Amino acid sequence: MPYRRLPKTDAARLRALKTVLDNNDIYTARNRFVSWDTVNRARPAYDRLLTAAEQYRLSYSAQLRSAGKADKLQRRATMYVSHFLQVLMMSVERGEIKKSALRLYGLGEDASSLPNLKTANNLMECGRMAVEGEKARVKDGGRPIYNPTIGMVSTHLDIFKECYEQQKRLQERTAQAIENLKRIRPEVDGVLLDLWNQIEAYFKDEPQEVRLDQCRRFGVVYYYRKNETKKEENKDCI
Predict the structure, then answer these.
(1) Within a 10 A sphere around the Cβ of 162, how many other Cβ atoms?
(2) What pTM, to 2 d.p., does this model score?
(3) What does each C-alpha distance from 171 to 58, 67, 69, 176 come to in angstroms?
(4) Distances (CA, A) of 24 to 9, 15, 28
(5) What is the DSSP annotation of 154-174?
(6) Contacts for 23 with CB less than 8 Å, ≥ 6 apart
(7) Is the Cβ–Cβ distance between 38 and 191 less than 8 Å?
(8) What is the pLDDT of the chain when averaged over all its residues?
(9) How far apart are CA 153 and CA 85, in angstroms?
(10) Angle, CA 139 vertex, CA 138 and CA 141 arms, to 5°
(11) What percent of the chain has pLDDT over 90?
(12) 201 vs 34, 54, 71, 209, 238, CA distance in Å?
């Protein structure tokens, strides 16, 4: 025998509520079997879930678009920072810049490899120290590094940082939208449960096939167990 189950997705919840609310039979005064109290709870619940689901969809779409842009800018900023540090280390190796100057850039005097720039936080921190270190060294009379200049490095870091912070704001907005959905879902499930109980109670004396078809017409969702078919359901009703 089929069994009913409350929807597991927001789209299914909205579809189930809309099926009931769009059925004119629940609004007729004669033979009305769904209480007005339940109907009056169902409409606001549907509207709140629809609004929250749309807000989540928009927030998540904006987050995805921004993520692609942020990844591209991060790769570009990483390239400029790494190229700058490579030129710095080669200058030290050639004796053009003193090893002690590496401390200005947050590097050890014996540094022979690049710091980890794979994460956004590491990139921004290493980039910041590179910019500050170069400015301090030049201020003390050192010759600036070219190709890339620290100005170009700083510009690409700033562009990435701005996009990265925007991406974090979008992620927070998406997370808030998810929390709103989590708060609304129990209310919607409670309304659906109340509706379905009243609908099934009204058709409880009908033959099984008629009862199931009528309940489905009002949005009640039924599932078949493993190895169970509709044919067997109809056979039982004969």
Answers:
(1) 12
(2) 0.75
(3) 12, 10, 14, 9
(4) 25, 16, 7
(5) HHHHHHHHHHHHHHHHHHHHH
(6) 217, 218, 219
(7) yes
(8) 90
(9) 10
(10) 65
(11) 71
(12) 10, 34, 56, 15, 22
Provide mean pLDDT across the span 30-36: 77
150-202 and 120-139 helices, crossing angle to 10°: 160
pLDDT per position as a tens digit, 93-116: 999 999 999 999 999 998 889 999
Q: In the beta sheet, which residues pair with residue 65?
A: none
Is 231's pLDDT higher than 70? no
3-state helix, strand, coil split of the chain in percent (to 5) is 70, 0, 25
Residue 152's identity, in one-letter code, is M
Residue 238's pLDDT band (cuts 50, 70, 90):
very low
Q: Which amino acid is at 20?
A: V
Tokens representing 74 are 């991060």
Instruction: State yes or no: cis peptide before 144, omega within 30 of 0.
Output: no
Task: Give the pLDDT of residue 30.
Answer: 62
Q: Are 200 and 99 in contact (CB under 8 A)?
A: no
